[in-house]
Amino acid sequence: MEYKRILTVQDISCVGQCSLTVALPILSACGIETAILPSAVLSTHTAWTKGFTFRDLTDDIPAITEHWTRENIEFSAVYTGYLGSARQIDFVMDNVFDRLADDGIKIVDPAMGDNGKLYTGFDGEYVNEMKKLAFSSDILLPNITEAALLTGSSYREQYDCAYIEKMLYTFHAQGVPTVVLTGVSYEPECSGVVISENGKISYYRHEKIDKMCHGAGDIYSSSFTGAYLSGKTIYDAAVIAADFTLSCIKNTLSDPDHWYGVKFEPVLSQLIEKLNNK
Ligand code: PXL
Predict the structure, then answer these.
(1) Which domains does the chain have, with CATH numbers?
(2) Average predicted confidence (pLDDT) for the chain
(3) Closest CA to 32 of 43, 23, 45
(4) Are 243 and 274 in contact (CB under 8 A)?
(5) Residue 273: how many other CB atoms lie within 10 Å
(6) How far is the CA of 13 from the centre of ligand 1 (A)?
(7) Disulfide check for 222: which of 23, 51, 177, 230 has CB 3.0–4.6 Å away?
(8) What is the pTM of this model?
(9) Which protein residue's CA is at the shortest distance from atom 6 of ligand 1?
C-alpha cells in the first residue's frame, strides 16, 4: 500500500479524549503518517463543567502554512474537525487546502453540534462559515444535527427516509460528491449510517446504544478517514468505523466515572485487525 501523509486540523483538548488526542492515535494505528495543525488549545473539551481555557490559534496558521509552502510540504488528504473560530474557516479553505497534492482529498467533519444543539461557543456566524467549508469538501461526515444546520432543515428526533434524503440531495446540489451521515435511526432499537455517493444511497444498520458519548463522533470520523485512506471503499470504511465506534462505546459503558470521553485505546487493536481483513 502507498504510504500516505494526511494533515488533520482540529483542536487540542488537553483532557477529554476528543479531537487530536483521538485522531492522531487512530490515524497512526491505520498506518498513515499524520501531521497536525491545532486549531485551538483548550484545557478540556467544552462539554466539561465551567472554567475550561480556550486559545484560538487562527493567527498562527499563515506562518505555519507559509513555511510548509517554502519546504514544498504537501498532503494526500486534509481532514478537518472542530475549528477554533468562524474566521479560521477561511484560513483553512485558503491556506491549508493549498497544501493538498494535486489529487488530494478534502474530508470535512463539520464538528459543531449534537442532539439538536450547537456546542458551547458556536453561533450562526460559525454555522455560515462552516457551510462554505462543508460544501467544498470531497467527503462530508456530519451527524444529523450538523446536517440539519448546514442544509437549513429543522432538526428532528423522528423522521423518515425522505427527511434524510432531502438533506443528502441538498449537499450534492451544493457540490459535495460523498456524504456519510451518522446516527440515522429509523427504528427504536437500531441506529445506522447513511452513505450517499453522488446520490447512490446505502444504509448500514447497527445496534443503538442510548447513551450520549462525548468524542464518539471524532472516533467515527478518524477511523473512517484512516480506513478509507488505507484503501477501503467508502462503504467499507463507513462500516468499519461504525463497528469500531460501537466497540469503543461498549468498552466505556460500565464505567460511570468516565462520562467525558470514550475509552478507545484498549480496543484499538480491533480496528487494526479489521483493516488487515482484505
Ligand atoms: O468531540 C467534539 C468536540 C471537539 N472539540 C471540542 C469540543 C467538542 C465537543 O463538545 O468541545 C473542544
Answers:
(1) 5-268 (3.40.1190.20)
(2) 96
(3) 23
(4) yes
(5) 9
(6) 8
(7) 23
(8) 0.98
(9) 45
